[in-house]
Amino acid sequence: MGGPVTRWWRSNALALGAIVVLVPATYAAMSWNEWSSVLQNSASRAVTLQPGDEIEYAGATVGPATAEFTQLPDMPPRTRVVTVTLHIDPGDPPITCSPLPLREVGGLERQWDARDDLGREWDPDIQTFCDSEAEGAYDLLLDYLVPEDVSGPFAVEVKSVEGWPEFVSAVVEP
Amino acid sequence: MTADTQAPPGAPAAPPAAASVSGAGHLPRWAAWTIGIACIAVAWFVALATPGEEQIQAPFRVPAAIGEAAIGRNLAVTFTDIRRASEVSASGWTADGNWLVVDLEAEAVTTEIGTSIQYAKLELDGMQFDASERPPSFAKDGALEVGIPREGSFAFELPDGLDAGDGRIELALNNITPELDSMIVLSFDLGDVESMDQTELLATGWVGP
Amino acid sequence: MSEQPPATAPVRKRRFTWIRAAGDRVPTAWFAAIGTGAFLIATAAFGGLATAAQPPLAHLKPGTTHVDDMRSLTIERAVLIDELPGSGTTPEDGERVLAIVVDVENNWDQPIRATGPGSVQESFSVTGLDEPSSGARMDDATIGPTLQPGVPAQLVYTWAVDADAYAAGDTVTVMLDDMTLYTATFVSRGSGWQDPTPSATMTLTVKDVGAGVDQEDGDDG
């Protein structure tokens, strides 16, 4: 019984070796082929920005970012407001970005949207989105409504089409 | 087996009995047939046990009960009340009929971007009802926030005379493709639901102190 | 052939040789014509190839309910009015609103929309007009409402028409259609009603209410 069996293995060794190498390689090649275009054309790679630092992104200088817990008149009970200030020095052409979410670092990784219905006094100088016609540096002021048991640290994500596949994840600790 | 009979007389020939047991490179015919038929039988059972198209794409149902939180992937709902009425009103709107009203508190769990309860259906007595879009209710303004519950109501308009039966209220985030995501399901018996002449829908808003 | 029992060989020769011999004599080009002729003669057995005449459409009196598996539709009245706020149709200068009030009940076991694809609006049509520009509930002016199974509702479908296109006493012909339930199986899911097939007609007389005493009630529609 040993003879014919080892003979089979030996005579098929080359083919078996090829299978062992080619099957995973085919899988890897197909995966890479499909995923690389998806990942390349979306914000998939995070560049972490520590509090107080600034970074070059999509031709602009992003940072520093700070945050603090505040109170606003229209907020519901048992919640807190996280107000984030993000300094942006736009390049040429001025950086544009999609709405900036606030993400919890660690834990459940929940994310919140900025809001403007919390009763903050209207101020024409407050920017809440990347201004595509800005001439100089400006500060973004973003309000996020979070439950009161959330304490951070948080990350504000700046995603710009020009910066794909990278995006800036600015860590803030209110 | 034919190879055995044609083996050259000088070669060491294993005794036929041993050949059929140990194989000697060839499976006896009865063994091959038995294994083959056994494989077909096993394949038949596997095919029977394989979930059908509906089950493969079914939503993940999270059972809910009045007063208990039901937590799905990105939707957490606590039903607070269920009742029937022959007249419902909400912020100045009012209508008659056989109405079923359910109050709830709902919040998003992981992300609130574009999150709202878009799928709100009642399955009762073999029929399917949509939450009524007529009154101001969660059906019209169901945007949810992460960790911050919002309260509101859904109202379902039922045909006159429908007073009993097992019903299920199903809530999910996505209306077009509710499959493969969480669906909160509240099961109840319509005959047991308390009935009244007139009721008000909860105004949609944050849960008060 | 030589090994076969001799009994079958002569039988085969006798039965089928004449066919071969006859076939050899007919010119090949004729086979197509002979085949076509045989086919046409066969179709005469079940009425021929001409399209069958449509069965005549039933003519309903106004107020009669047209029932099919999808919905029961009763056309109540047709009204010409200067404007109908809350109906979803806003006439421009020189236009007026033609409104048709219907009572509908959903006969299916799932909700049906009043306007849009696969809706009640597709199950009837008015001769000379396109799809209504809007459909709304009469009681609370909900635009584009959904009809729940077994729950009747009164709806009004409206068109913006030229002011002189219709006058009091004009008739409009409404075609009432049967719809077929299709369940999507392969690429899409769910079921819906499609294929409106005319099955009845109704003639309505248009009433002109001028500036409109006949207004919808309900809040800011």
Structure description:
- The complex is a heterotrimer of chains A (174), B (209) and C (221).
- By secondary structure, chain A is α+β, with helices and mostly antiparallel strands.
- Chain A folds into two domains: 2-40; 45-172, Immunoglobulin-like (Sandwich), CATH 2.60.40.
- Chain A is built from two helices and nine strands; from the N terminus they run ααβββββββββ.
- Chain A has helices spanning 2-11, 13-40, and strands spanning 45-49, 55-57, 60-70, 79-89, 102-104, 111-112, 138-147, 154-158, 166-172.
- In chain A, the strands form two sheets. In chain A, strands 1-9-8-5-6 form a five-stranded mixed sheet, with no helix packed on it.
- Chain A starts with a helix and ends with a strand.
- The model of chain A has no long low-confidence stretch (mean pLDDT 88).
- Chain B has 209 residues and is an alpha+beta fold.
- Chain B folds into two domains: 2-49, no CATH class; 59-206, Immunoglobulin-like.
- In chain B, 17% of the residues lie in helices and 39% in strands.
- In chain B, strands 2, 3, 4, 7, 10 and 11 form a six-stranded mixed sheet that branches. In chain B, strands 1-9-8-5-6 form a five-stranded mixed sheet, with no helix packed on it.
- The longest helix of chain B is centred in the N-terminal third of the chain and has 21 residues, at 29-49.
- The N and C termini of chain B lie far apart (86 Å).
- With 221 residues, chain C is an alpha+beta fold.
- In chain C, strands 1, 2, 3, 4, 6, 7, 9, 10 and 11 form a nine-stranded mixed sheet that branches. Chain C has a two-stranded antiparallel sheet with strand order 5-8.
- In chain C, a hairpin with a 3-residue loop joins β2 and β3 (71-81).
- The model of chain C is unreliable at 217-221 (pLDDT under 50).
- Chains B and C meet through β4, β6 and β7 of B and loops of C.
